[in-house]
Design brief:
The protein is mainly α and 307 residues long. The chain has helices at residues 2-12, 26-32, 48-53, 61-72, 86-106, 121-132, 163-177, 197-213, 229-242, 254-260, 265-275, 284-292, 302-306, and strands spanning 180-181, 188-189. The longest helix is centred in the first third of the chain and has 21 residues, at 86-106.
Length: 307
């Protein structure tokens, strides 16, 4: 059987110990191709001397494909030039294509180099809004975004950065930095830029605290009343605590009634202490009298009975 296998190999010209992809074609290319495709001024812009000096065929994948095709189709070397042996030619083509296939398999799914691009005007505006919380509408100062052949404005080869674009981006960044408030806690951004940022930021934070926890009954300087419903809820929570026995909730604390109304326990405790002052002064005395005149519940509340 072994003798038959050896005979077949000899007839077909296949060597068992020889690997057609193990020998680099560089010596053959140097002998027959470097004269026209060397480092100087290579013909057709293809320098085989440079290609063979690279560590991987992947660095010039397309050029190596052309080299393999030219050798396979006997277009290179030209007819009037010395020709390599047919076995050397086939071995060179096999080596190149084997290396190309190896590289393609190893990097399958890799898109290759991706052009670094700038943000489009819209992306820049959205980024500024996400970082600052402000809609400054500064993207109108940029030049219109280019559309690549793919139909997208965020295509890297179309979104290059010209000198004029860079100047506008820098000017816009400077304008955005003018809205930053630094030194009063974590960095923040305020709608009004300038030196008054510290004061305006402090006023804005104070107003937010009042809106979240306080109230204002009368409008002043164009302001609007807010938080008035907190007092209604606080008086109601104090009334329920006052009559917790009749309501069938003797074990519920004042803090518990406050939590049901979404109020802080300290606020309801303050209201409770006010309505139980022995000798309140006017006008608080009027409010206390109205609260104390509220009717006593006839029995457990509906929500309690349903529960």
């Amino acid at each position: 059987m072994l003798r038959l296998l050896l005979t077949i190999c000899v007839v077909t010209g296949v060597a068992l110990s020889a690997d057609s992809t193990s020998s680099s074609p560089t010596p053959m290319l140097k002998q027959y191709c470097f004269q026209c495709h060397g480092e100087g001024t290579p013909m057709a812009g293809v320098s085989l001397e440079q290609l063979t000096s690279q560590p991987s065929v992947g660095n010039s994948f397309e050029q190596w494909k052309k080299v393999a095709a030219a050798l396979d189709q006997r277009r290179m070397p030209p007819e009037k030039m010395p020709q390599p042996a047919e076995a050397d030619r086939r071995q060179a083509v096999s080596w190149i294509r084997a290396k190309l296939n190896e590289y393609a398999t190893k990097h399958a799914g890799d898109p290759g180099p991706v052009t670094v691009r700038r943000l489009t005007s819209g992306e820049y505006a959205y980024t500024v809004r996400d970082l600052t919380g402000l809609d400054l509408k500064l993207d109108g100062d940029f030049v219109p975004d280019e559309v690549g052949g793919e139909g997208f404005t965020n295509f890297g080869d179309a979104q290059f950065m010209a000198d004029a674009n860079l100047e506008r981006y820098l000017a816009t960044a400077k304008a955005i930095a003018g809205h930053a408030v630094i030194g009063s806690g974590p960095i923040g951004f305020f709608a009004d830029p300038g030196k008054s940022g510290f004061e305006l930021s402090a006023i804005d934070r104070i107003q937010n605290i009042y809106r979240a926890h306080g109230f204002r009954a009368a409008s002043g300087e164009g302001g609007k009343p807010y938080g008035l419903e907190r007092y209604t809820k606080a008086f109601y929570a104090a009334w329920r605590f006052q009559h917790r026995q009749a309501l069938g909730e003797s074990k519920t604390t004042l803090e518990g009634f406050a939590a049901r109304e979404g109020l802080s326990a300290r606020f309801v405790q303050h209201i409770w202490s006010v309505v139980h002052k022995p000798s309140p002064v006017y006008p608080i005395s009027e409010v206390v009298a109205l609260w104390q005149s509220l009717p006593v519940p006839a029995g457990p509340s509906r929500e309690r009975t349903a529960a």
